[in-house]
Design goal:
- The protein has 174 residues and is α+β, with helices and mostly antiparallel strands.
- The chain has six helices and seven strands, in the order βααααβββαβαββ.
- A seven-stranded mixed beta sheet has the order 1-2-3-4-5-7-6.
- It starts with 8 loop residues before the first strand and ends with a strand.
């Protein structure tokens, strides 16, 4: 059975009511390094994005889901991006908002649900992610779900005047 519901959280589609939540996340400069963002997003642009968020992953090549508590509190987002149907693969990105929500297993549960959805419903063969060499929490999260380090991209991202290495992790559906 395909489900996006876990024990403590569920994954849901974006809603127009998520405008403020997404605006806050997308304009949080402390995470721009992770998302490769260079400039802020306006409410107008995010509203337009939300108006088209219902489009099929096969058309737009990405899927963004909200990580939600059963009290309907948005805890973060998890994405499939760079969706490649021909080669049956996609990239994964995850963000749990605010440190008060971190280290509670929400990210682990969301990633597990997304992996199951990707392999059973979308029939993907593999998922991959890019993780900064310094991001120990993400390395642990993805490694614990079976992702394997397959490469190191040296001097990959230029951040605050210096270059940072980035790992490439991959999970193949056996």
């Amino acid at each position: 059975m395909i489900t996006l519901k876990g024990e403590n959280i569920y994954l849901r589609a974006l809603e127009p009511e998520d405008l403020d939540f997404i605006h806050t996340i997308e304009n949080d400069e402390s995470i721009w390094e992770i998302s490769n963002t260079q400039t802020p997003y306006s409410r107008f642009l995010i509203k337009q994005y939300l108006e088209h968020a219902h489009k099929d992953i096969f058309e737009v090549k990405q899927l963004r889901l909200v990580i939600s508590s059963y009290n309907d509190v948005a805890l973060g987002m998890i994405d499939l991006f760079d969706f490649d149907f021909k080669n049956r693969r996609a990239g994964v990105g995850i963000l749990v908002k605010e440190s008060t929500n971190r280290l509670k297993g929400y990210g682990r549960e969301a990633l597990k649900l997304l992996i199951n959805y990707s392999f059973t419903h979308l029939d993907l063969h593999q998922l991959y992610c890019n993780i900064s060499e310094e991001n120990d929490a993400s390395i642990k999260l993805f490694s614990n779900q079976g992702f394997k380090e397959i490469g190191l991209k040296k001097d990959w991202n230029y951040v605050n005047g210096s270059y940072k290495n980035e790992y490439l992790y991959q999970l193949i559906n056996k």
